[in-house]
Amino acid sequence: MSWGFGVLSREAGGPHRSAGTVFLIVLGVAAVARLLFLGQRELWLDELFSYAFAITPRSEIFWPSTTLPHAPLYFLLISFLPADASDIAFRLPSVLFGITTVGILTHFVIRRRGIREGGLVGLLLALNPLAVYWSREVRMYALYGLLVTLMILLVLSERLSFWGWMLLPAAAFYTFPYAIFYFPWLLWEALRRRWKERAVPLLCGFGIVLLWLLPALYYSRSHPGAHTFDRLTPHTAIVFLKQSLAGNALTTRPRIRLAILTATALGSAGLLFLLGGLREKKRSWERRLFVGALSPLAFYYPVQFFIDSGFTYRAFFPSSLLLVLLSGLGLAKIKVRFLRWIVLGGMLLSYLWILSLYFQPAFPYNWNTPRTRRYAVEFSKLAETNGSEAQWYFRTFPAAMAAVRYAPPSFKRKFLDPEIWTSQLLPMEREYFGRFFQRQGIIVGVPKRKDGKIVEIR
């Protein structure tokens, strides 16, 4: 049974030694960037959501009521890790997915355009801060990026087999539901040539998607609630392009503003330089790749007015990777070697400057909150000073989620502020987390003073 993956690992006449050296250097850089300081922070709130799903009985993971607004495949994969595995162990799958993505994209460019282009593109992808960041968290985005980019490259290589057309798009959707917006481009590519061999399995794959999607839509409709995302507009589309090329969608702190502007300007120049040379090459793979990268946004735009979902830059993370690839191809076309190295150096230095902020323990992600807190240490000290008879009253949702992973056994009577429960969880999430907190011994309610000392934790 051929999935068509061999095209990414086969060179006519065998791999050239220098190409292999460049490939290994790129993989080494990608690995260092993704492993450096990997365990310096505890799992933060979003990662703790993933941890909660991972320790849920596997029979529940595939139910939409469990993981919505996310899909179950990634959580099923990490559920095979022991619940008491280290934070690094839970992050390693994303690291491996991220490194593999860089390797596949680099090898593809080496085969298509040569060693110089492949090495340049590979270094940009290895150090792109956005690609690095999502390869270091217990989240589904690294696997999502791997599956979608692999799918698109195999389509462009004309080597995606019957089973690949069926199962790879379905796997991407079951990793992150926004993958469905890549399906129209896939269908268009399937209908271009040998449509019976392509469109039929793709539609079968869509049938596999519907097995989860229809119950998910019904459940989300029966549990409506506000979302926190923006709408896709021309402005947010431009911001998405800027953040993809700069490798930063996380913070706009003054310290990295110059790096963001530099990377955006140079990346945009590379993209425009490439597209300018493709005006007369309507059937080139670069042009098809560019359409494949941006088509999900075009298809998402009208749909957003009919579903209760907003635009999030993470939803099209695979497109960000492909735009960086295309930008690198454009920069590689600069004829003057000295100028080419200056531009590449500017991009890489900008990326490294942004990463220098990301690697700091106090780096703020959401809500500009530094991530230096160590709940495991705090919980241990509180347990020593208050004893096992205290009532532990969590006044923030991150504290309650951290208690699930880091609280010592002496935390026996645990409570979560009802107001926090209502404000922090979407209606579609409350059914699952009601069961989850019950299993973890956390009561949604206010403790009573007559029942013992109350220790508030924020």
What does it look like?
The N terminus is likely disordered. By secondary structure, the protein is mainly alpha-helical. It contains 21 helices and 4 strands. The chain folds into 2 domains: 364 residues, no CATH class; 83 residues. Helix content is 63%, strand content 3%. Strands 3-2-1-4 form a 4-stranded parallel sheet. Helix 6 packs parallel to helix 9 and helix 13 packs across helix 14.
Q: How many distinct helices?
A: 21
Query: What is the rounded distance between the termini?
Result: 54 Å
The helical percent reads 55-70%
Q: Give helix and strand order, one letter per element, not per position.
A: HHHHHHHHHHHHHHHHHHEHEHHEE
The gross shape turns out to be globular
Sheet with the most strands: spatial strand order: 3-2-1-4
Tally of distinct domains? 2
Return residue spans where pLDDT drops below 50 for at least 5 consecutive residues.
1-15
The major pleated sheet works out as: 4 strands, parallel
| Beta-strand content bin | under 5%
Q: Give the total of beta strands.
A: 4
Structural class: mainly alpha
How would you state the average pLDDT, rounded?
Answer: 89
- Global Rg: 23 Å
